[in-house]
């Protein structure tokens, strides 16, 4: 089991402080994103100093499409073995089924150099990929086109779906999962309604059973807007390790 921490959670704190905090909290892995890829040497040094690895990272679609060599170079420098494309801006999102089918094919095509290099490749969802297109969702079209998934369980719930059900729906396609919790309605408004893992409303018993059933053993702890990242990191890893 790999338990990682998405470094984007701590974007408002110095990276050196974050890495030390994570090492002290018992983490052994992190997940990178664009901001920590700018100086791979410095990032790698901080990881090594604090006993951390980076098995996965979030890479922009523009980078993967336009300069796969650069993306692969970053991955190699940091030890990344799974590249996930995490987002597409609202003005670039398709608006109908045909558009999403074309996007799904484009996304799969962009991943060919990554897969050819022997790395994993997938899409990380938010909630907009779970909109109904008339009996199918964009996320299903993406998976059907041949791209694996890093299923964000928090955004699945935010979209009004059952995370355990959707883990089972995508059997064999989920190569990592974002472990993310939601506060009860009206709480944690200063944190956009997100909660520390195990301190929200997610049904972790059902989710854990689905993760086990699908053999998903790469978990990434995340909170989009913690007001205290050390508290979030500590309480969340305590929850997940307690499983």
UniProtKB/TrEMBL annotation:
A molecular function (GO) term: isomerase activity
Keyword Isomerase included in the entry's annotation: yes
InterPro entries cross-referenced by the UniProt entry: IolE/XylAMocC-like, Xyl_isomerase-like_sf, Xyl_isomerase-like_TIM-brl
Pfam families, per database record: AP_endonuc_2
Residue ranges constituting the Xylose isomerase-like TIM barrel domain according to the UniProt record: 24-228
SUPFAM superfamilies (UniProt xref): Xylose isomerase-like
Name of the protein this chain belongs to: Sugar phosphate isomerase/epimerase
Organism: Wenxinia marina DSM 24838
């Amino acid at each position: 089991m790999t338990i990682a921490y998405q470094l984007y959670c701590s974007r408002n704190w110095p990276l050196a402080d974050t890495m030390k905090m994570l090492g002290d909290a018992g983490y052994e892995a992190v997940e990178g994103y664009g901001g920590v890829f700018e100086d791979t040497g410095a990032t790698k040094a901080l990881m090594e100093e604090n006993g951390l690895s980076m098995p996965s990272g979030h890479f922009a679609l523009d980078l993967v499409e336009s300069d796969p060599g650069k993306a692969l170079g970053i991955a190699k420098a940091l030890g990344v073995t799974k590249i996930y494309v995490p987002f597409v801006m609202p003005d670039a999102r398709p608006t109908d089924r045909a558009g999403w089918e074309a996007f799904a094919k484009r996304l799969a095509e962009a991943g060919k150099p990554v897969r050819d290099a022997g790395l994993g490749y997938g899409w990380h969802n938010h909630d907009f990929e779970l909109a109904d297109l008339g009996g199918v969702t964009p996320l299903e079209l993406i998976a059907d086109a041949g791209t694996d998934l890093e299923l964000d369980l928090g955004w699945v719930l935010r979209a009004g779906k059952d995370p355990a059900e959707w883990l089972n729906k995508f059997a064999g396609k989920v190569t990592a999962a974002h472990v993310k919790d939601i506060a009860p309605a009206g709480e944690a408004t200063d944190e956009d309604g997100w909660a520390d893992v195990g301190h929200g409303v997610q049904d972790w018993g059902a989710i854990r059973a689905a993760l086990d059933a699908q053999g998903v053993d790469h978990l990434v702890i995340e909170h989009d807007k913690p007001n205290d990242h050390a508290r979030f990191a500590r309480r969340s890893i305590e929850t997940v390790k307690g499983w």
